[in-house]
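Minutes, methods subgroup
Present: GH (chair), OT, SY

1. OT presented the first of two proteins processed in the latest run. Sequence and structure tokens recorded below as shown on screen.
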Amino acid sequence: MWRGLYTAASGMITETKRTDTIANNLANADTSGYKRDLAISGEFEKMLIKRINDYDERYDITAFKGFHVGDSRPRVGDLGMGSYIDEIATDLGQGAMETTGNQLDVAISGNGYFAVQTPEGVRYTRDGAFFRSAANGQLQTTLGQPVLNRQGRPINIPQNATSISFGPKGEVFVHQAGGDPPPLALIGQLQFVEFDDRRALLKQGNNLWRPQEGAQPRPATGTIEQGVLERSNANVVEEMVELVNNYRIYEAGSKAVVSQDELLDKAVNEVGRLS
């Protein structure tokens, strides 16, 4: 009975962590470039159940002078020992494209990440909602992180730039004031990369990814689209349905704990009572 309590409790802990994962997906349903997480559960090794004296030859009616019928011994079955969260996997599926008309909004179609500079080092993101810093003209993220070029340096937009254009591989063009029409100039190229191993990047928070030790970026095979943003690939309806289902499973585990507790109560206070 003690084992039953632990088994049911482990299932409740598993579903609690799954609820946290779903809640995070819902909270980021409107976050540009966000990729939903999936809680993958595993099962502890099962234990074989047997009855007392099942394997004692003194109680085997087929035994006669060391001889018995059949080579297999009777089994009651296996007992599950509970579950746990084995991995928090990330769904890297493409999010829907939303047209914004903002010339600094860019989205990635296919594989690829933008490189940005953070206090912890170079990090990667698929959030292309960029801004032009009023202080120094740098191309930055919504958190004020400089967007890096292929040489690993910030991209500075000239003060006299009247418009900005992005090429499919991250080329940055600006139209500068003066002349008719204004001259078009290439001022840099976004560091637009991907990784051979899909597990080379780990989520860090704030819609950023950090590379694992030894991970080497290479030019991305995807393309960049201007004037659009990639929305989160978390579907609110699906996540809500999963949340309700997760609640039902948690509720079943809590009822199992109550039942086990009641059995323990009877075993201690009634079965073991001396008349």
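2. SY then presented the second protein from the same run.
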Amino acid sequence: MQNVYTPEAMRAVDRYLIEQCKIPGLTLMERAAQGVFNAVAKKCEGEGRRRILILCGSGNNGGDGLVLLRLLHLAGYEACGVLLAAEEKLRGDAAASLAAAKASGCNFLPWEEAKAALSGSIVVDALFGTGLCRPVTGQAAQAIETVNASGAYVIAVDIPSGIDGRDGSVQGCAIRAEETITFQNYKPGLLLFPGRGYAGRTTLHRIAEEDAPVATPFALQQADDIAALLPPRPLDSHKGKNGRALLLAGCAEYTGAALLCAAAALRAGCGLLRVVVPASVKPAFSVLPEAMCVPVGRGGAWDAESCCAAAALIGGQQAIGFGSGMGQLADISLLQRAIASHIPLVIDADGLNALSRSRELLRSLHREVILTPHPGEMARLMGTAASEIQHDPAGIALAAAKEWQCVVLLKGASTCISDGRRVVFSLAGNPGLAKGGSGDTLTGIITALLAQGLSPMNAACAGAFLLGASADTAYKILGNRMLMASDVTLAIRETIGQLSQIDPRHPIADAE
């Protein structure tokens, strides 16, 4: 698990490294520039040496660029600095770096000359760092637009200029980079869209071995975190030990959702799976004999009779999955019963829609509950617009989980998982998941993990990873256009097999 820091927290990290670890600021700048140097050198190795233009601003990000200019010049590269700030505006380490670059004989070009040389060059963006929190204007904005239109290969220093390091929003305009070299820790703006899209391929370059004791609610999960949560099963394990789960899912109109959810739960290791469906859905489960399918009611909908019969089956389970393909739920008594049981519970899809219509149900949530909304469902739960959710998904997930006292897994290209104390980012996955059935698959996976004893937060984190990583595995074969949810389920076995080869370090510790 890697700590993720806002720009404000990163300033505290830098102070700690400088003041407590006694690492001079110029030394940190040299180490940062070395990371970008490595990226430039690798690019040149693959395609031959090319002209390198380094756009530098007046702050420490520009200072990193000036140190890079000196390193490239001394190594014999054709590198030119382009200073887009008055020299007298540079202070401290940035000013010292400019003086060192000049003393080394580095070449500088005025912006008007540099514009003509952009095409075919490698452009290093060192204009603004992570602390930018105002719209980019003037010459800097013109430079950004010109670089974006040039077709040059762009490497961003720490974060693409114009991207807000706090939330990934675009401050007027922003550099579109092919790759970004960020330093010491990831920032939320590099993990959330649109910033993540502007950053291209992001590489973390450590500039100090020390980890600063600076508190942050944000973390990025890694494969070894998930491997630690899924240890090998003992040789004497049996189906009773591997978890008993109940899925309340499906209706006559959405039979496939129940099948996808059940198949994913089984593939994720659930020992005994009971799937409760309206009576007319029962025949569809002939294709999935491993699931014990229990029909309730007389038709294909979740009416009062069906809900009453299903409620009697809730006891004795270790986990419940609720909502996949259930259709419009006029009767919320079954959802009330599932919540009140305090059995670990995943609520998705039609369960979330029912929840959004009852403030009383929302107030009854507790720490054994996981909600798995996409932005539209989250907007309905919170009574706001989806655009508001997408503007700050990490903050929304954190605030909602804290208010509702449950775990919130806010789905998206960058998934945000929160228990009200912290937010874990999950970046696994690809656009192939943007199809019907992906949410049902996720619900099945998480339900199975809960049944096997994972805490709600850990089950949500591991479930998001298994879904995304399995989609990435399937993508290699099918591409994202042909990828279906059932392909992801089939790939889960390979994902778990790969995790078993990892030497696990530390599991995701539940917050005190």
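Chair's summary of item 2: The radius of gyration is 26 Å.
Next meeting: continue with the remaining queue.
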